[in-house]
Amino acid sequence: MAKRIDVSGLSAFYGTHRAIDDISMTVEPRSVTAFIGPSGCGKSTFLRTLNRMHEVTPGGRVEGKVLLDDENLYASNVDPVTVRRTVGMVFQRPNPFPTMSIYDNVAAGLKLNGVRKKGELDTIVEKSLKGANLWNEVKDRLNRPGSGLSGGQQQRLCIARAIAVEPQVLLMDEPCSALDPISTLAIEDLIGELKSRFTIVIVTHNMQQAARVSDRTAFFNLAGVGQPGKLIEIDETERIFSNPSVQATEDYISGRFG
Amino acid sequence: MTTIETPPAAAPPRKAATVTRAGDRVFAAMSRGSGILLLVVMAAIAVFLTVRAASAISKDHGNFLTTFEWTPSLNPPVFGIAVLAYGTVVSSIIAMLIAVPIALGIALFITHYAPRRLGGPIAYVIDLLAAVPSIIYGLWGALFLVPHLKGLNLWLDNYLSWTVIFHKSDPNSAARSLFTVGILLAIMILPIITNVSREVINQVPKMHQEAALALGATRWEVIRLSVLPFARSGVISASMLGLGRALGETMAVATVLSASPVLSAHILDPVGGTFSQNIVAKFGEADEFGRDALIASGLVLFVITLLVNGAARLIIARRKEYSGANA
Q1: Does the interface ipTM go beyond 0.90?
Q2: Where is the signal peptide (chain B) (predicted)?
Q3: A99, A115, A174: best mutation site toward chain B, by most B Cβ within 10 Å?
Q4: Distances (CA, A) of A121 to A104, A112, A160
């Protein structure tokens, strides 16, 4: 299921402002890649270019190529809706559909894909909730609203919703920043389990988290306010945190700036 | 929410001596006063309507609820609200059936489909519709809508006559019917429903829409999955505001409708009446007793409006925990 992501010469714009500049990188299938860097360095923006969510923002525009295996997501004949069914996303704030039950939240993406049979839905909903380590907590109240769960449970519900459609890639935009340490740990464990099935890219502000969950880490930085963000380096997580090849990375991860 | 346990004290705990400031006191008195004033006004209206209505109804020699005619000047007086209640409800239902889908469509177009350059001007034009006085709508309805709806009436009578509803007893009669009134009311309540719906739809959090988008939802599916469920209770409230106006609209109905005390299932027939149309038509020539009778009909309109609002609140409350409010 998992696919390789190959980005070359990618820049993203908000109107005329260039938010990220000329980024190239490869993300291996069935691995976890973490994006770290200071606020405003464009790591979230870059993440959103990987499932064509960036262009949803008014004025959002992208130049360059993103290959999923061999298919360019930005080719003129590619429908962004199809892209987003292949590349799932989990957001910073847990955002289950408030008007839907837990069951319907997980089934939402399946129904969009035309899965209608009750039996099939039941099976996939259970499998996805189990996959998100949430099944045992919610199996008795699948018809209760998803918004009644705790923050950490809601986020795992969102992960269940995202993996229910069996995406090739799972993008996570600071998935733990609104959660307490215990919920964070639950999500991190989950990421470790999910990487056997999906290609995972995670943006995080928490460097320990990047060190714990990821195989490779990419460091983004920007020269100053209003300057575009750039990819400084991407390497094995272990190397980034022990012996990075760029001085700026070392400064950032050890807490020294500039 | 944290609760601080109070130690079990023998004496009732004394309120901590708080400093009340003059500004606080003035403001609290003002807001309390406004609240009380509202209740007093409502109670005054209710008492006035009930007392006058009761004295009229007690002298009614017909059945007040089922009589078609409105002839309180006869001796003995005979008057009833059957035709008025029917006409009011039917014309309002027609108006809602037409206005709510269109208003929702416009609101969604402005918020989700129209380019920004277009959305603003459209919203402005809709606002202008709300600013037109109802007598102008009435004149436009009588002088433009009535003659121009003749063709549509004939078409409906020709092809949909079998539905009974669209059967027209005299195909050549003018379109001064409840159907025309309904269309006119629909245009009049369109702006309020559109504007309130637009406000509500604009408040649907971006994160819910992005959740749908990220699952691979098309624009319509985003609206269906995240926008409409979230905005549902607000759109119902908006519709109720519109319905309230449709139920009570006076001048436009009085100008267009050819009133007569006939209750007909054929909504294209130029017969019938509504509460407020009847009041404005009869008030001038009514004597003291006639006025009380009209007030009694006003009381019924008041009650119908209350019932409609109550029903709307029930609908909204029924799925409260699923609403976006606790997201």
Answers
A1: no
A2: none
A3: A99
A4: 10, 12, 13
